[in-house]
TrEMBL record:
SUPFAM superfamilies: PLP-dependent transferases (SSF53383). Its cofactor is pyridoxal 5'-phosphate. This is alanine--glyoxylate transaminase. GO terms for molecular function: transaminase activity. The lineage of its organism: Bacteria, Bacillati, Actinomycetota, Actinomycetes, Micromonosporales. Belongs to the class-III pyridoxal-phosphate-dependent aminotransferase family. It comes from the Bacteria. It comes from Asanoa siamensis. Keywords: Aminotransferase, Pyridoxal phosphate, Transferase. Gene3D superfamilies: Aspartate Aminotransferase, domain 1, Type I PLP-dependent aspartate aminotransferase-like (Major domain). CDD domains: OAT_like. Homotetramer.
Length: 414
């Protein structure tokens, strides 16, 4: 279990987009507990909803009893999912949500064969780890699934990176057909993919890629699972769900992180005929509990009522355009990428695409000195990840931009 920073921080309070640590300093938070504090800290509407539930004296009942907040939230998510006749199953984390989706898909197709994507991350449990294409997060080579791997959408390095967008989509389709023909027994259960790879460093293929792949999957009934743990709820700005950039509707969609704004809440939403393929008794003891779903309803209502998707697009553009203009040609900046308030900077050795981890650490620590908390990630741990609360203001974006630019310039001069 790693800790950030040479001198680790303890966060003791928060308000809006800022946190105060035990060292007495206040920081602008651009990572939100790994994109989880989606609306911000100490939001009255969310605090009040949780306090109302606490005052009832009921923190837990299990789903053996009706939970009104859970039913209400499930109806909202089903409606927003874009999946016809959708059903929802709540869990506590994205890992559990992906496990549930895998169970449903493999049962529906009567097959344990899964297509996954290189550089992906889907969780730390046994099956979720087995479909994670990222060696730094794979604690075991053992796997209950038969997994075949597709190319990622990495456009900085890799076999498909040298191609234009349309060519890359065509090559990815050809790759899928070859993988199906050579690495599988034919009766594949599902493809699971992140529209934007989170832990992988906010890597994304061209728009329309998943739609093109789905046409091939549909030829034999292979399901599509869209892992929206980090891309959901309007964070990408352009769309409410990441899959909507691809002209496709998934069969199953997993969600987590931001929907609870810090409370443990996740789940899977999908086609009724697929979700119902769990014949044995199954429920999640704490999944969708009264406290978490009270928070989830208030969080989702806040996102919609305040049109935070539009804010993510507007404020995210300030950050991306500002970074591109100020440091896009800096020798240690390999790529600035992302959309909305899901942004990344990949750092490399000057004049190459070779990952530069020491430079990344220098920028990371300089950001902290300047009063900004960011995340790290990527296959080589050389990517700065930024996923601030969707309520980020334009002034706060410009404040963070100045800190980031100064940190990159300081690190490149070292």
């Amino acid at each position: 279990m790693p800790l950030y920073y040479a001198e680790p921080l303890e966060i003791v309070s928060g308000s809006g987009r800022r946190v105060t640590c035990s060292d007495g300093r206040t920081y602008l938070d651009f990572f939100g507990g790994v994109l989880t504090t989606m609306v911000g800290y100490a939001i009255p509407e969310i605090t009040q909803a949780v306090e109302r539930q606490l005052r009832t004296g009921v923190a837990h009942t299990s789903t053996l009893y009706l939970i009104r907040a859970q039913v209400e939230l499930a109806e909202k998510i089903a409606r927003l999912s874009g999946i016809p006749d959708a059903r929802v199953f709540f869990t506590n984390s994205g890992t559990e949500a992906n496990e549930a989706a895998l169970l449903m898909a493999t049962n529906h197709r009567r097959s344990n064969q899964i297509l996954a994507v290189r550089n992906s991350y889907h969780g730390r449990s046994y099956a979720a780890m087995g479909i994670t294409g990222h060696r730094g997060w794979s604690a075991s080579s053992l796997n209950p699934l038969q997994v075949s791997w597709l190319h990622s959408g990495d456009r900085l390095r890799g076999l498909l990176s040298r191609l234009g967008d349309d060519e890359q989509v065509d090559a990815a389709v050809d790759d899928l057909r070859e993988v199906l023909a050579t690495q599988t027994a034919g009766d594949v259960a599902a493809l699971i993919a992140e529209p934007v790879q989170g832990v992988g460093g906010f890597v994304a293929g061209p728009d329309g890629l998943l739609g093109a792949l789905k046409k091939v999957l549909d030829e034999t009934g292979i399901l599509l699972i869209s892992d929206e743990v980090q891309t959901g709820w309007g964070r990408t700005g352009d769309h409410f769900w990441g899959y909507q950039a691809h002209g496709v509707v998934p069969d199953l969609l997993t969600f987590a992180k931001g929907i609870g704004n810090g409370f443990a809440l996740a789940g899977v939403v999908g086609r009724a005929d697929v979700i119902n393929q769990v014949p044995a008794t199954s429920f999640s003891t704490f999944g969708g509990n009264p406290i978490s779903t009270a928070a989830g309803n208030a969080t989702l209502d806040y996102v919609l009522d305040h049109d935070l998707q539009a804010n993510a697009a507007r404020v995210g553009a300030i950050l991306r355009d500002g970074l591109t203009e100020a440091v896009g040609d800096n020798p240690i900046v390999g790529e600035i990428r992302g959309r909305g308030l899901m942004l990344a900077i990949e750092l490399v050795q000057p004049g190459t695409t070779v990952p530069d981890v020491p430079a990344t650490l220098r920028v990371f620590e300089e950001c902290r000195k300047g009063g900004l908390l960011v995340g790290k990630g990527g296959l080589y741990n050389n990517v700065l990840r930024m996923g601030p609360p969707l309520t980020l203001t334009e002034d706060e974006a410009r404040e963070a931009l100045e800190i980031l630019v100064n940190a990159i310039r300081e690190a490149s001069a070292a």
